[in-house]
Amino acid sequence: MTEPGKAHAGDSAPSVVLHDLVAAYGSRTAVRKVSLECQAGLVTAIIGPSGCGKSTLLRCINRLHESVPGATARGSVRIDGHEVYARGVDPIALRRRVGMVFQRPTPFPTHTVFDNVAAGIRAAGEAATEGTRAAPLADRVERALQRAGLWNEVKDRLKQSALALSGGQQQRLCIARALAVEPTVLLLDEPTASLDPLGTLRIEELVYELRGSVTLIVVTHNMQQAARVSDVTAFMLSGELVERAPTRAIFTTPRDERTEAYVTGRFG
Ligand code: ADP
Predict the structure, then answer these.
(1) Which residues approach ligand 1 with their CB closer than 6 A?
(2) What are 68-103's pLDDT values in tens digits?
(3) How many CB atoms lie within 10 A of CB 10?
């Protein structure tokens, strides 16, 4: 696996492709004709000042944006070639393939650690076609917790409330819950915003480790974080995509002077 920042466009096939995506809240346009490719198995960071549309863009990828009253989206979002906005696409099923983690951990507060991870598997199981042979539930829960780097910390606490975990552990539990249903894409919206430095480090290490097995898209206002964890960085400003390039190039040789002004701290 290449180190973050060393990937080059063309290293792997695009997994998520946005084309002329426009997203609005009523008459207020938040995302303006953005076209962007996120390559399979790599980490794409989306950076830009607060309010530039990063979160809105992310929420269009799993169609969470449309859950806001008055919110609209047009243009195209394709995942592995399939149009997310095509008629007949079930947003609930889509959100299993496209997991999401938010700023604040969102474990199910009345569920145990085990049941938090099992919940998604059970819901997906109900929707699974007959004849699907899956590993036993406990094995799948363990595997998801292993992938999220949490197993050793919680293996003796599976029956405890998820709320008994630290904030950072809760965030990794949410990542385990998303991973349990084997998504192809994982969206992370400022995933360390509410965490202390150690919790932040663990999430950043995890993002690094998950590269290769899932396509990751991370929204962050923290440029150092983008530089540490991502292969490709996209810079947004006022709803527009200004520039997308290998992360190292964005931070050392940006093409657009607005990108340079932002990454050198001259605004934002
Ligand atoms: P970022 O993630 O870059 O901080 P957002 O996508 O959250 O930006 O916001 C983009 C724009 O959309 C901002 O002007 C913000 O005020 C507006 N916006 C975000 N969420 C809502 C909402 N639920 N209703 C109305 N406007 C919103």
Answers:
(1) 25, 28, 30, 48, 50-56, 68
(2) 999 999 999 999 999 999 999 999 999 999 999 999
(3) 8
